[in-house]
Amino acid sequence: MVYAWSGSGTLLWSQTLTGGQDFASPILVDLTGSGTNDVIVGSAAGLFPLAGATGGFLYGTSATAGINTCSEQTTPSVVDIPGTGTAAGWHLFETCGGPVELIATGRLFDYALPVAPAVTPPWPMWRGDVAHDGESP
After folding, report:
1. Which residues contact 6 (CB under 8 A, 6 or more apart)?
2. How far is 15 from 124, CA to CA, in rounded Å?
3. DSSP collapsed to 3 states, the chain
4. pTM above 0.85?
5. Could you tell me whether strands 46-50 and 77-81 are parallel, antiparallel, or unpaired per DSSP bridges?
6. Which residues does 46 contact at the CB level (< 8 Å), separation at least 6?
7. Per-domain residue ranges for the chain?
8. Which residues of 80-119 are buried (b: 16+ CB within 10 A; e: fewer)?
9. Span 99-122, mean pLDDT?
10. CA distances for 95 relative to 53, 75, 98, angstroms
11. Is residue 55 scored above 90 in pLDDT?
């Protein structure tokens, strides 16, 4: 289950995903350009984008059909690559593996986001800064 809570502790929504109890840490990023952060979470069954406001599945995914069928054990990353051309702009990176019958282990996927986030992701770096100490500059 994926749960979204308000700042006051009220349950906003919940969503069921496949993949047993084997889930990667979710990330928050505005995937649709709406100004609301959405949720991306991986499981043993794939990578799932959820609408931050409702918990609904995005981009044709469902509870049983993620972006792919690669077993996601790590947290995906969203980055803004400077420059011009197809390599520049906002991208989602996913590292995953297996099961070997579906996708060979040790794969890296790069998905160009369809729109630039309208809001800066709320936690742009682990522990908030380059030093990973959680302190503001």
Report:
1. 12
2. 24
3. CEEEECCCCCEEEEECCCCCCCECCCEEECCCCCCCCEEEEEECCEEEEECCCCCCECCCCECCECCCCCCCCCCCEEEEECCCCCCCEEEEEEEECCCCCCCCCCEEEEEECCCCCCCCCCCCCHHHCCCCCCCCC
4. no
5. unpaired
6. 18, 19, 65, 66, 67, 68, 69, 70, 71, 72
7. 2-128
8. eeeeeeeeebbbbebbbbbeeeebeeeeebebebeeebee
9. 76
10. 26, 8, 11
11. yes
Chain mean pLDDT for the chain: 82
| Single-letter amino acid, residue 115 | V
Give the CA distances from residue 50 to residues 88, 93, 105, 107, in Å, rounded to whole numbers and listed in that order.
24, 16, 25, 23
Dig out the tokens for 95 from the structure. Answer: 């590292």
Q: Which two tokens stand for residue 97?
A: 């593996």
Is the separation of the CB atoms in 43 and 66 below 8 Å? Answer: yes
Query: Is it the case that residue 105 has pLDDT exceeding 70?
Result: no
What one-letter code names the amino acid at 120? T
> What distance in Å separates the CA atoms of residue 107 and residue 95, rounded to the nearest whole number?
6
- Check: CB of residue 113 under 8 Å from CB of residue 40: no
